[in-house]
Fold:
Amino acid sequence: MSDAKYFQRGKIHELRTELNSEKKDKQHTKKKTVLKKIVANMTMGNDMSALFPDVINCMHIPALEIKKMVYLYLINYSRAKPDIAVNAIPTFLKDVDDPNPLIRALAIRTMGYINVDKIIDALVDPLRSCLRDRDPYVRKTSAIAVAKLYMHDQVLVESEGFVDLLRDMLADSNPTVVANAVAALTEISERSNTVTLKLNTTVANKLAAALNECTEWGQTYILEALMSYVPQEMGDAEVLAERISPRIQHANSSVVLTAVKVIMYLMNYMTKEEDIANLFTLLSSGHEVQYVALRNILLIIQRRPEVLRNDIKVFFCKYNDPIYVKLAKLEIMFRLANVSNVDQVLSELKEYATEVDVDFVRKSVRSIGRLAVKIESTADRCISALLELIQTKVNYVVQEAIVVIKDIFRKYPNQYESIIGTLCENLDNLDEPEAKAAMIWIIGQYADRIENSDVLLDDFLFTFLEEPVEVQLSLLTATVKLFIKRPTAGQELIPKVLKWATEDVDNPDLRDRGYIYWRLLSTDPVTAKTVVLSDKPRISTESDNMEPALLDELLLHISSLSSIYHKSPQTFIPNSKIRYLAHSPVLNRRYPGQQQQQPNLLDSDIDNLASGSLGINSNPYNVDVVNIGENYVGDLLLDL
Amino acid sequence: MISQFFILSPQRGDTLKTWHKEHGPDQDPPPIFNVDGVQILFTNIQGLYFVCTTKFNVSTFMTFELLDRIASLIRDFCGILSEECVRLNSSLIYELLDEVIDYGYPQTTSTDQLKSSIYEEPVPVKKENIIIDSIAKLRAHGTNLGFSSNKPISKPTANSHDEGRYKQNEVFIDIIERLVACFASDGMTIHAEINGSIQIKSYLQDNSEIRIILSSNMTHGRDMYYSDDRFGIMFDDYKFHESVDSSEFEGHRQMIIFPPEGEITAMIYRISGDVNLPFRVFPQILDVPESPNKIDVIIRIRADFPEDKIATNCTVIVPLPHITQSVSNEHLDGFADQSARYDSRVRKVFWTINKLKGGTEQSLKIKVTGASQFSPAAHLEIGPINLEFDIQNYTCSNIQIRRLKVLEKSDSLPPQRWVRYLTLAESYVFRI
Structure:
């Protein structure tokens, strides 16, 4: 008999008549059929709550299949009908005393789901006895039921002493029970302001010993809980890390990565290094697991670059990788690039830059530029690769290349001017603000080397008032530079631009910058020259590195959603607890600023791959000035 | 922990609407994203979306592993995984989920353990609907999905309450190797890697013990000193399922397995470096002297594997420049079982060879006419050439099961053993 026909939109009264039919139904097959129909309707979102009293009447039927379906129904509709749901209590209370452990557990499990005051009250006593049931299946179900109860009523759980009962269960003889108790305690301490899970060395070691016997899921819970252990002596941390390290070989990736997390955490409390290199096999799994692995590897290599044994090829993109995997790989390739493997990396990037996926191509082009900034010896080859790409005339490639070439010019001033001519051939195609601003910056910066720089700028100025602020700011500064370097060429443009900036534009940044230039130029042209054309601070790709404090925090969240988004959990999960490296006499202080509060967040928007974390931030230059005054002062000083 | 779980079917019009509303219909969502504070994690298994939502900072690996396991459990309990099967067996799947997840916490995903608490009977899916479950479909999703041969899939792992129906005593073992290879334009191998897995689908009675000995010319990267065969294959990494006793693997290449009923991945391994690659492709781009708007691309493919093996479903995919206007193909070796077509939408030539024997060669000449002259930049846009294929009864690593012994405990039927080898291209790319 197939379930498909249960999916017809059932008429409530028909179902009721069928359910209440007095016909002979020895095996309860008819009741079963009706209940299946009801469940199927429920799945489709049809409101079946009108049948509540009738369904409750079926509770007493001694067939497990029926009981399961009735309970499923109760979980769904009890909140809508709390008054009638109370009628289920007698049967529940009978079931929690049933000789069959499956039924006892089923009753406890179901009651825990139902957030109705009277049922919660009725649950307290049976739950207490079931937590000490002789059957481990019942005990493990009861442990989770405590966590459920805690969600409904924190005060009740604490006043009834359930937290202590859970704590006692950590010593249970059955590892699955231990694991669930651990999971429940972890969840309670995550929700609670008063309860915090703290493990001492003895308990931590006992839990670690239970790992071998647990299911893979239980292992994950226990490992997760070990994050609440703060070693007070180096030896303790080492022993525990040693115990956990075999988990890294496990087939379940969740166990693997949680074990890595715990070991990396423990290493903050010890001097010995543990081997955590075995992460490659995760990369041969499905795309989803690969993606998660890559995002985590990106975190791990920022703290421990040696774990990857220089095997950069593993991260080369496959043609059928989905875009999110490719982008994650690109970022890792960039970070792992060094003098010895840069040739390989560059030739890969060049290949990627001619593929079809626009996002991927853009990020590849950008990475080539960043590579030039990162590794000086490769700058020449990167530049020629970029020039080759500009020749393809593919619009977005050209624009992306110009953006990164600007950074290369900043990093290596006066070395690559010869390519300016090629860049200027592509002016007409620029339609993205970032690329325009970059090109204008180049023209301003080299106003005295580019013969027709005044003509080029004038062309751009034609649409000044329609441009986005980013481009306007860039035009303003470039015109001032032109004027200072070649007064005759700039004298016609400068009054026009200053007037626009100060009178016709509403943006305060632009207006204020305009005034500053105006006053500078009119009061003291010599000083204006030293200010505007002063040496710029060096740029480097180090500013792409994550804030150490954020990195520290994220490393405590390896494998969780945080580690995918690279954001602190507080930013996307309200009321989540902050994790930090707890103080202990043996806590290493390798990284200054490790304990700083309130980490800075990355700008990257996880929902938008196009502006993913690969991009150079709008303010990539590590200058403290930015934080002192208003934003425009920063921009002004930085972008001159 | 996990708040909700869904199985969605794109064939019935379920799509991830919220994502596409913001990002357009073409961009695929990453497997994890956030909508109004709800975290969504999903995976695509055999054409069905398995989706979890949560408001907590959950372990992502746990969620994906769980989704994967739920899919295998449905396969084990219902026989196959398909939309129809999920629909037919909704009560059974509810019952399963109730045992597998409690309050968002995975409890157990072991088929053996679950058997004792599941009471619903599976509803069989009609035979003819099962054929979709073919290799091609599995490969399209690229993950380490259930791979046992087509045969056993229709047999549900029946539960123990129904002894009468449950008579087969067999075990299916698949060794599947997915190849990742990339060749430079000069034919040098840039990167080659085998991602292998040994899948076991067991219908053995009494949880019999299985002993497998792999052919011995293999060594693990670290213990190469013990190997007297210096041409032996080096594993870079390997991992075993928890039901595998691998204590004798280093010394004797022996695995002792107590397979739970249903399907497991007993071992996964990775081999990189010196790999026997089954195919070479030699591309050649010729300018046509009299007309600069035309070029010829000649592709020659050579099968470098033993003559008694046959590669099937070979497809060579050649991307052409965006100025391409028209394309004509010319098969240089007159041979019937192949075809080539140009898809102007994606600007790629698809050259399909249904059967390619080991040790043979085939060539194709693609005549391309462009809208304008072929500049050097346009040449850059040709390629990289991509190859898809599968080769039955062949492994690139030469890994073989040398012995397969099922130790029987009771006087049941003699166990049937089925072994299959398969090599697939995961990403097989030639640059030009």
